Amino acid sequence: MRSGIFTQGTRTTRWAAAGAAMVMAGVLAGCGSGSGGSDSGTLTAYVYGDDAVKVQQAAVDTFNKTSKVKVKLVSVPGTDYVNKLRSAMGSPSAPDVFFNWGGGSIKPYVDSGDLVDLTSTIENDATLKDGFLPSIMTAGGLEGKVYGVPMRGMQPVMLFYNKALFAEHKIEPPRTWEELQAAIKTFKDAGITPFALGGSDKWPELMWMEYLLDRIGGPEVFRKIQDGDTQGWGDPAVLKTARTVKELIDDGAFGKNFNSVDYGNGGAPTLLNKGKAAMHLMGSWEYSTQLGKAPEFAKKDLGWTAFPTVAGGVGDPANVVGNPTNYWSVNARTKHKDTAVAFLKTMASQTYAQALVDNGDVPTTSGAASMLSGSPNPQFATDQYDMVRKAPSFTLSWDQALEAQYATPLLTEISKLFAGKTTPEQFVEAMKAAK
Fold first, then answer.
1. Counting Cβ atoms within 10 Å, is residue 191 exposed (0-12), middle (13-18) or buried (19+)?
2. CA distance linking residue 157 with residue 322, whole number of Å
3. What confidence tens digit (pLDDT) does each residue in 386-432 have?
4. Lower Cβ count inside 10 Å, N or C end of the chain?
5. How far apart are CA 118 and CA 96, in angstroms?
6. Are 99 and 16 in contact (CB under 8 A)?
7. Which has more pLDDT, 13 or 175?
8. How do 193-196 and 149-150 pair as beta strands?
9. Which CATH code, of 3.40.640.10, 3.40.50.10860, 3.40.190.10, 3.40.50.1820, is assigned to 155-321+403-432?
10. Cβ pair 288, 6 in contact under 8 A
């Protein structure tokens, strides 16, 4: 399925990223300096095969009408994408352009010089420089350099809530940590789980850590870690984040059985739409999940808002975390760099952005706001777009931002922290020691 916000397959694309990084890392030794797999008149582009491919295929068809070098789109089924890319990148038939998740998923290629650094190209091209939201462009890069151009929709993490429950108990969605704590008490006293959490899947727990660290210490703390300094886990803000998570668990914010609740099979979303949980911190695809599982609830009683502020924190309350988008990157071995860049520029066009909207996505282009009236839920799409547009920083989900050698133990250690099998201090030491 696709990686947009209005279908339920987003999670497959989103959470394949850590595995992609792991497999990509293993192939670098096999990458040579050959021709990049294109003949004299063809540029090959690998894309994750799901329902959104029709949007990319239409863009290719349009581009090929005027380009001497033709783009050949290779749609690889999602379940095979990682292995197919791995095999191709280790052969003379490597793609010229390929779909990725940015961050850690491309770091091995960056380290080995196998990607085109697009920083100066974008800086000197008005279409690329001004065509996308700045936070999106930055989020997919590494160490201040840009290696990809956005090519699908945005997926920020948002705080969803059951409007009927909030109305019944006469409270507003929490904007501050104090209001959040008050809401937890109100719903607990009423026998309602304050927050749904699919703890058995591990990754939903990650979102709490991401937002808390951003609000407490600002995006710079994780940026240091992403850039390769594991001692960054020793920052005091990380320990405070872990302690805050423990306080939430001890306060019963997630109920008693969250470690046996899943997301993938609908456990956590069902708690929210059945009124058994009041809130749910989740990626923007939660809307499409609810629309599929409980359409009346999605249309009438599903609310959304930003993550609350944390008293004493230095992070900008407008910052967001999650999955900025997916990106096209260019193989340094391509014979057709100019054509590849020309094709990437079409991602900034109004025509392409409209095609994304028509397919249920919220584009990452600078001028997309005026197009969102045609979205399945214009208000949700507009609120989501404005949230990202106004964000000074958009932190890429940690398990995508880090290479697999760090992302895998990260998910394990976070799961242990949430399960009470390790202390906040032990979490910090374990991550500092990750190799």
1. exposed
2. 5
3. 999 999 999 999 998 998 889 999 999 999 999 999 999 999 999 99
4. C
5. 14
6. no
7. 175
8. unpaired
9. 3.40.190.10
10. yes
**One-letter amino acid for residue 151 of the chain:** M
Fold identical between 10-154+324-396 and 155-321+403-432? Answer: yes
What whole-number distance in Å separates Cα of residue 405 and Cα of residue 18?
Answer: 9
DSSP 197: -
Q: What are phi and psi of 141, to 5 degrees?
A: -90, -175
Q: pTM of the predicted model, to two decimals?
A: 0.87
Residues 6+ apart with CB under 8 A from 5: 153, 154, 155, 284, 285, 287, 288, 360, 361, 362, 381, 384
Is the model's pLDDT at 11 over the cut of 50? no
Q: Under CATH, domain 10-154+324-396 is a member of which superfamily?
A: Periplasmic binding protein-like II (3.40.190.10)
- 435, 161, 362: which is closest to 277 by C-alpha? 161
User: Alpha helix (H) ranges present in 359-403?
Assistant: 378-389, 398-401
Report CA-CA distances (Å) from 46 to 124, 149, 298. 26, 14, 34
Q: Give the residue-averaged pLDDT of 197-212.
A: 96
Domain-by-domain residue ranges, the chain? 10-154+324-396, 155-321+403-432
